[in-house]
From TrEMBL:
GO biological process, alphabetically ordered: actin filament organization; pointed-end actin filament capping
Subcellular compartments: Cytoplasm, Cytoskeleton
Any one of the GO CC terms: cytoskeleton
Alphabetical list of SUPFAM superfamilies matching this protein: PH domain-like (SSF50729), RNI-like (SSF52047)
InterPro entries: LRR_dom_sf, PH-like_dom_sf, PH_domain, TMOD
Protein name per UniProt: PH domain-containing protein
Length: 658
């Protein structure tokens, strides 16, 4: 056991040194951080196993981490010293390893080793500062470069000796194509997409013989953000390794960070290496245009695939992701499940899931995301139809705009009137049937002028009512197609002589209010609410909430929060959220807790050490009666973590502080 933890500690210190060395390298830093996070995972699992074994044999933990407390002090020093990039700073392994380390420290303090632990921490901090001084840093960097050069030379010598023993073998066709003289200087000299368009003919013609020219040309188009390049397809085309040709896969991975026109990135079976995939994971966080990503059948490791899943949760534009025949694991599956919950636009996921529980959860979330996308499409369609029908240049004043396909839509306008007239006396039915026949016989182009005198020619009372209310009828007829039922009712009520008089007094504003009824509320999990519901101050999404009475190894709960009319409420999952009508109740069904900010004012305090954590503290030192669901602790401060949330910390703090 001691040899195992010593090996883990050695790897932690060496990988943390690489993270510090390569912090200015955009290519080497992601791989160094992934190696470091893997050692944190091993250290966390070892410490958790020791805590579980403490119940049976407390002496074993004291033998490994006790004594001079140097091992636990080394772990704590490395955790405090390493500063990760934005891509991995919120990785769960950092938090869980820190919590496991705190648990071991508390156990040692209970044993009476608190003074030894403090002394060991101070010594390790001094040693770390000495190791990372400027002189040592330069020496370590040179040593790392020398080690890499020696390893490359050893591999080259081994390959040379092996080739000398074997008979000469003919080079592969792909190697011949890349060895040919290519004309990439002309491509790389272009600084505008229009200059690259002039070389399109040559590049396309050389694809069959000099595929390297064509690949460099395509990647340079992505680098220059060519507006005409919306689909980037390298499917089944073997790219060269990034260390041999940096102008293809590494350049493409970096270019996707700032590209704003590529919507389909298809790189299935393209020899995409783990190092370039890690850079692509960073680019996904900043990209706001990519909708489809295909990286099937590539040499991608589980840690890198997990980083891609985390980047997908931030990229709210991505709707389809395919990564079949790549590495998999439980952590990767959990990362994809979090991505589906954080990104409601992600509706298609190509990833093999063997665990039955995660298979069911991912299928449920995909169903919710597809329903949300369908509702957004319907709302967008209705909005466009409404804007098209009410445009300023529609038609002469008082008449609806005749759309290109208005002929079949215009004819049924006289039919609803005959359906409503059915409950009337039998004496009027023949006259209405004749009126309907005459209305259908009128051409579509002359319908606005011809329908009015034909509909009710024999009823003087209704004719007088229509004469007194021309504006109300015109307003009802100009209603968009999406709200036609309400408009028809407003017109049909004029057919009854008893109801004609009160209807004539109805103002135009009331008719317009009927037309502009709000659409249904947004689904849970949507990042942005529809346009019709923007008048509401509701903000919703997942957050980590610190539990006041949780166990030491699990002190954060993943909850779904809703900020509605000055109250912050939370449920266990978004599927537990009741209907929108009951959110205003004193205690909605299934609600795990709430904070009423109308009864008690609160201060929103950001955490100084972690950019994802903030706290909600009562302004007067205590919450007023009724402000919390559980008033057992009236002075409680609520802590929240925005990691993997659909909204940033600034958005939550701004909404809570409004």
């Amino acid at each position: 056991m001691e040899a195992k933890i010593d090996g883990i500690l050695g790897k932690m210190e060496s990988t943390s040194a690489k993270v510090d060395l390569y912090k200015s390298s955009k290519v080497k830093l992601p791989m160094a951080e992934l190696d470091y996070l893997k050692t944190l995972e091993d250290a966390r699992d070892f410490m958790n196993s020791m805590v579980a074994a403490t119940n049976q044999n407390r002496q074993e933990l004291a033998d490994i981490f006790g004594g001079d407390c140097s091992r636990i002090a080394r772990i704590r020093t490395v955790l405090d010293a390493v500063q990760l990039s934005d891509m991995n700073c919120n990785d769960q392994r950092v938090r869980t390893c820190t919590e496991a380390c705190e648990t071991i420290e508390k156990v040692l303090e209970d044993m009476g080793l608190g003074w030894c632990l403090k002394k060991a921490k101070d010594e390790e901090k001094v040693s770390l500062v000495r190791r990372r001084s400027s002189i040592d840093r330069e020496a370590a960097l040179k040593a790392a470069q020398q080690l890499e050069a020696q390893q490359a030379a050893a591999v080259l010598v081994e390959v040379t000796e092996t080739d000398a023993e074997k008979p000469p073998k003919k080079a592969s066709k792909a190697a011949d194509l890349w060895a040919q003289c290519c004309d990439e200087e002309r491509v790389l000299a272009c600084t505008e997409p229009t200059e690259l368009h002039a070389l399109e003919r040559e590049a396309t013609a050389s694809r069959s013989g000099k595929i390297g020219n064509w690949m460099i040309w395509m990647v340079h188009r992505a680098h220059l953000d060519d507006p005409s390049l919306s689909k980037f397809d390298f499917t089944n085309l073997k790219m060269p390794d990034g260390n041999l040709e940096p102008r293809v896969s590494p350049k493409l991975a970096v270019a996707m960070e700032s590209n704003s026109h590529i919507e389909h990135l298809l790189m299935g079976c393209t020899n995409l290496q783990d190092q370039e995939a890690a850079i692509l994971a960073v680019s996904l966080r900043a990209n706001r245009t990519l909708k489809v990503l295909n990286i099937d059948t590539n040499a991608i490791q589980p840690l890198t695939l997990e980083s891609i899943a985390n980047g997908t949760s931030v990229n709210q534009a991505l709707s389809e992701l395919r990564c079949n025949n790549c590495a998999s694991g439980r952590l990767v599956t959990e990362a994809f499940l979090r991505a589906l919950k954080s990104n409601p636009s992600l509706c298609k996921l190509g990833y093999p899931v063997t665990d039955a529980y995660f298979r069911g959860e991912i299928d449920k979330q995909l169903t919710r995301n597809n329903d949300a996308a369908r509702k957004r499409r319907l709302e967008e369609k209705k909005r466009r139809e409404a804007e098209g029908d009410t445009s300023p240049a529609a038609a002469p004043a008082g008449y609806p705009k005749p759309a290109p396909k208005a002929a079949p839509k215009a004819e049924p306008k006289a039919e609803p009137a005959s359906e409503v007239d059915k409950p009337e006396t039998k004496e009027k039915e023949p006259a209405k049937a004749d009126a309907k026949a005459q209305a259908e016989a009128v051409p579509a182009s002359a319908e606005p002028e011809a329908v009015k005198p034909v509909e009710k020619p024999d009823d003087p009372a209704e004719a007088a009512a229509e004469a007194k209310e021309p504006e109300a009828k015109v307003e009802a007829e100009a209603v968009p197609a999406s709200t036609e039922p309400e408009a028809v009712k407003a017109v049909e009520k004029l057919d009854d002589p008893a109801e004609a008089a009160p209807e004539t007094k109805e103002p135009e504003a009331k008719v317009a209010a009927k037309v502009a009824e709000p659409a249904e509320a947004a689904l849970p999990g949507m990042v942005e609410a529809p346009v019709q519901s923007q008048v509401s101050a509701t903000l919703r999404g997942y957050l980590y909430k610190k539990s006041p009475s949780a166990r030491l190894l699990k002190s954060w709960d993943w909850r779904y929060f809703v900020l509605h009319e000055g109250r912050l409420m939370w449920w266990r999952r978004d599927r537990d959220l009741p209907s929108e009508e009951v959110l205003g109740q004193a205690d909605p069904a299934g609600c795990k807790g709430f904070v009423n900010l109308k009864l008690s004012s609160a201060n929103v305090v950001p955490d100084k050490t972690n950019p994802m954590i903030f706290a909600l503290v009562p302004a007067g030192g205590a919450w007023k009666e009724g402000s919390l669901k559980d008033m057992s602790d009236a002075s409680r401060a609520f802590e929240f973590d925005c990691t993997s949330s659909a909204h940033s910390r600034e958005e939550w703090m701004k909404a809570l502080g409004a």
